[in-house]
Design a protein that fits this description.
Layout lengths: L6 E7 L10 E6 L2 H11 L4 E5 L13 E12 L5 E16 L8 E6 L11 H18 L5 H5 L3 H11 L4 H9 L3 H17 L12
Parallel strand pairs: 1-3
Antiparallel strand pairs: 1-6, 2-5, 3-4, 4-5, 5-6
Length: 209
């Protein structure tokens, strides 16, 4: 269940890391400040906000929208590092950054209203996504079990591709902020087509400025 806001949450700025409702995001936590964040989260509501940085400054500016997750599993290693899995419970917007004494950043978050499970894609819509995903994977040399892919529901397929595809930060943010699965699907197809056709493929120019 999505908490009612506004609420204070710790944030983990990480370029390219998207967390969608009902999706899972495994993370290896090694920096001391984020080890402390995990320990504090486990002692409380287990909430962590994933958010992308806007730039490469330190500390970086943050995008306004991120994905709110609850720690579903956490394993502390002998050297103090953590392997955790976040379960996505919804998106949120940053109302303001909080002044805190912790080494990690915290914000006042405004969670979105809980989203119902999305309407399924149309047959042609789904087929177009699968077709472009195959071309994209072949162009990048990815080995994919397409039998398993075909068994995913529309939401898992669309959000899974959005999570793992090596798009630039701006494109990833557009995918996160898409209002529904159908729009996100259309963006995915556009981004995959663009990267497949430009020189350098996934290492080529940014898909979205």
């Amino acid at each position: 269940m999505l908490p009612r806001g506004p609420l204070p949450i710790p944030v983990f700025p990480l370029a390219g890391a998207l967390l969608f409702p009902r999706a899972h995001l495994p993370l290896h936590i090694f920096e001391p400040r984020y080890r402390a964040m995990v320990r504090d989260a486990l002692a409380g509501e287990r909430l962590i906000g994933m958010v992308q940085p806007r730039d490469q400054r330190e500390p970086p500016a943050l995008f306004e929208m991120g994905g709110l997750g609850r720690i579903a599993s956490a394993d502390e290693l002998d050297d103090g590092r953590w392997n955790i899995v976040l379960e996505g419970i919804g998106r949120y917007r940053i109302a303001r950054e909080l002044k805190v004494e912790t080494l990690y950043r915290q914000v006042e978050a405004e969670p979105e209203e809980a989203q119902e499970e999305p309407e399924p894609l149309g047959i042609a819509h789904r087929a177009e996504l699968e077709r472009e995903a195959r071309r994209y994977a072949d162009a990048l040399g990815y080995a994919v079990d397409w039998g398993e892919i075909n068994r995913l529901d529309d939401e898992m397929l669309v959000n899974g591709i959005a999570q793992i595809a090596p798009f630039d930060v701006g494109s990833k943010q557009a995918l996160l902020e898409a209002p529904d699965i159908a729009v996100r699907c259309d963006l995915l197809v556009q981004f995959m087509q663009f990267q497949r056709m430009v020189p350098g493929g996934a290492e080529g120019p940014e898909t979205l400025q």
